[in-house]
Amino acid sequence: LVFDEPTSVLTPQETRALFQTIRNLKVEGKSVVYISHKLWEILEIADRITVLRRGMRQGTVERSEASPAMLTRLMFGEELQAAGGGRWEEPAGREAALLLQDVSALDDRGVPALNGVTLELRTGEILGVAGVEGNGQRELAEAIAGTRPVACGRIVLAGRDVTRWTPRQRRQAGLAYIPEDRDADGVGLELSVADNLIATRYHRRPLSAWGVLRGGAIARFCRARVERFGVRASGLAAKARTLSGGNLQRLVVAREAGESPRVLVAAHPTRGVDMSAIRSIHRALLELRDGGTGILLISGDLDEVLALSDRIATIYRGRITGVVGRHEADRERIGALMLGVEGRGVEGRSS
After folding, report:
1. pLDDT tens digits, 42-79
2. 208-209 vs 212-213, strand pairing mode
3. pLDDT-based confidence at 344, cuts 50/70/90?
4. Distance of alpha carbon 49 from alpha carbon 52, whole angstroms
5. How far is Cα 33 from Cα 342, in angstroms, rounded to an integer?
6. CA dist 17 to 1, 24, 305, 348, Å?
7. DSSP state for residue 204 in the 8-state scheme
8. CB atoms within 10 A of CB 187
9. CB-side exposure of 338: number of CA atoms within 13 Å?
């Protein structure tokens, strides 16, 4: 049996059940190949561990001999430092960067996907949204970005009601958006690296003047973004489709995070990218937070949510089931809330 990232949409409780199933299969004499970028999963379930880098085997070790430091050295040639940490203060008392009040929205089939969502994102914090995929996360991000209409409720950005504003108007007010599907919504695959980087601000100075694009200013702007965010491409004129998945995601992050927005909605910002890109993107998010940006982090990777978030909101069937402070969060508690089970001591549905 081959399992390829099997826990990406599972709660901690479901992951434990899967691991027990795999152990039972092993007892029955079945052979299992388990592929994952989550080191703790590999260390918990594997008997032997093989590390691949750029399509080549770097080594195979017995579980009893393996450690996270050893595995990261094999994966990257050096031991990477954790992306988390840095300055963090309790965000209570800070002004609201983004406020959702009783927001409801329909999905693409016309079925209710968000049901009275109330959330407050404060300046200089990362508010993680955890939930099993398909519980309204996509609709939540699109409603805030302005690409999905709101059936009822209010969206307030930096003190202004933007519920009926267009996506461009919201961007001009300080909103940035990393969509969950980079190929369909995040980049123009047939456009150049430069065109993708300026796609949201080509109409502004210094990139254009009097309706005319300024080539020199665009080149300087794009080179700075490519260097800052580590986008690897053959040149600014290269088409986006020639980039790897990790570099495509870096390209989206470079465009959206490059000018320190007031609010960044980051939907699955590291999905489908390697660990080097994951750490690069995590560092960019933490730098934005430390600079005062409010970040709504929507991710199906609970490890990512736990590592980066200052507070964590859980969503189930389009409703917020709880908001937990960073120092109160644990996998069991968050997992229960992801399944719609109310826990004691959470801040509440509307924190």
Report:
1. 999 999 999 987 788 989 999 999 988 788 778 766 54
2. antiparallel
3. very low
4. 10
5. 36
6. 17, 11, 21, 28
7. S
8. 24
9. 27
Query: Among all chains, which residue has been given the structure tokens 């100075």?
Result: 205
**Cα 197 to chain centroid, rounded:** 19
Q: Tens digits of per-residue pLDDT, 127-159?
A: 999 988 889 999 999 999 999 999 999 999 999
HSE value, Cβ hemisphere, 13 Å, CA-based, for 251: 31
Using CB atoms within 10 Å of the CB of residue 73, give its burial: 0 to 12 exposed, 13 to 18 middle, 19+ buried: middle
**Which pLDDT belongs to residue 206?**
93
Residue with token string 């490519």: 226
Which residue type does 185 have? D
| Residues 281, 253 contacting (CB under 8 angstroms) | yes
Q: What are phi and psi of 192, to 5 degrees?
A: -75, 165
33-35 and 2-4 strand pairing: parallel
Q: Which amino acid is at 250?
A: R
Burial class (CB in 10 A: 0-12, 13-18, 19+), 186: buried
In whole angstroms, give the CA distance from residue 175 to residue 153. Answer: 19
> Distance from CA of residue 106 to its chain's centroid?
22
- Return the structure tokens found at 303: 């490890």
Whole-angstrom distance, CA of residue 330 vs CA of residue 311: 12
Token pair recorded at residue 111: 């079925």
Whether the CB-CB separation of 284 and 104 falls below 8 Å is answered with no
Q: How far is CA 273 from the centre of its chain?
A: 11
Query: Each residue of 241-265: b (16+ CB within 10 Å) or e?
Result: eebeebbbbbbbbbbbbbeebbbbb
Contact 324, 346 (CB under 8 A): yes
Q: What angle do CA 315, 319, 320 make, to 5 degrees?
A: 55
Calpha distance 155→116 (Å, rounded) = 12
Structure tokens at 145: 């970005």
- Token pair, residue 93, equals 């008392």
